[in-house]
Amino acid sequence: MSTLSQAVKFDLNLLHKYNQPVPRYTSYPPATELSTDFDQRDFRGAIAKLKLPLTLSNFSPIG
Predict the structure, then answer these.
(1) What gap in Å lies between CA 4 and CA 12, rounded to an integer?
(2) How would residue 17 be classed by pLDDT, with cut points 50, 70 and 90?
(3) Dist. CA 31–CA 37, nearest whole Å
């Protein structure tokens, strides 16, 4: 059994070009906005204000 391997060649110009700080990933809402004061009643009220239509989906496996 033989394994073929090839050395990886890096383009130093590209490494220097893209080697810079970038913004970090943040979730939405950010953790600083989360609070234990927002309870289930608040959640249900916020959902009710959206006035979204109720949808129902049914998926049946075939075969």
Answers:
(1) 25
(2) very high
(3) 14
Phi-psi region of 23 (alpha: psi -120 to 50; beta: other; left: phi over 0): beta
- The pLDDT of residue 14 is 94
Give 3-state DSSP helix, strand, coil % of the chain, rounded to 5. 35, 0, 65
Q: Residues 15, 19, 23, 27: is their CA dihedral positive or negative?
A: positive
Closest CA to 18 of 26, 10, 27: 10
Instruction: Tell me the pTM.
Output: 0.35
* Tokens 């913004």, residue located: 23
State how far the alpha carbon of 38 is from the alpha carbons of 1, 32, 33, 35, in Å: 62, 13, 11, 6
